[in-house]
Design brief:
Elements (H helix, E strand, L loop, with lengths): L4 H19 L26 H25 L16
Helix pairs in contact: 1-2
Length: 90
C-alpha cells in the first residue's frame, strides 16, 4: 500500500527526533578540573559535537525510516484507509 508524501515526511521527522534524543547523550564528558569561570554550568559538556551528532542522526534516521516504510509497504503492519464519510461531522 503506497503512503503519501506527507506521511513519508512525517514518519522521517518523527524518526529523526527520536534518534536525535537517543544519540545526544553518547560521548558526553562533563567539565573536569577547576570550576567553570565562563558562566557555563558544571554539568555542561566540554565539547558537545553537535554537528557530528546531527549528521549521525540524519543517516541513522534514514535507515530507521527505510525499515518502517518497508514494513508498512510489505503489509506486515497494515495502514487502515480512512474515507471522508467515516470522519465525524463538525
Amino acid at each position: 500500500m503506497p503512503l503519501g508524501p506527507f506521511t513519508l515526511v512525517a514518519i522521517y521527522l518523527t524518526a529523526w527526533w527520536i534518534v536525535l534524543f537517543m544519540i545526544l547523550p553518547l560521548g558526553m564528558s562533563s567539565q573536569v578540573g577547576a570550576p567553570p569561570t565562563d558562566g557555563s554550568q558544571w554539568g555542561a559538556p566540554e565539547n558537545p559535537n553537535l554537528k557530528k551528532k546531527f549528521i549521525t542522526t540524519t543517516w541513522v534516521a534514514a535507515i530507521v525510516w527505510a525499515l518502517i516504510v518497508g514494513v508498512v509497504w510489505s503489509g506486515i503492519i497494515p495502514v487502515p484507509q480512512i474515507n471522508a464519510s467515516q470522519l465525524p461531522a463538525l
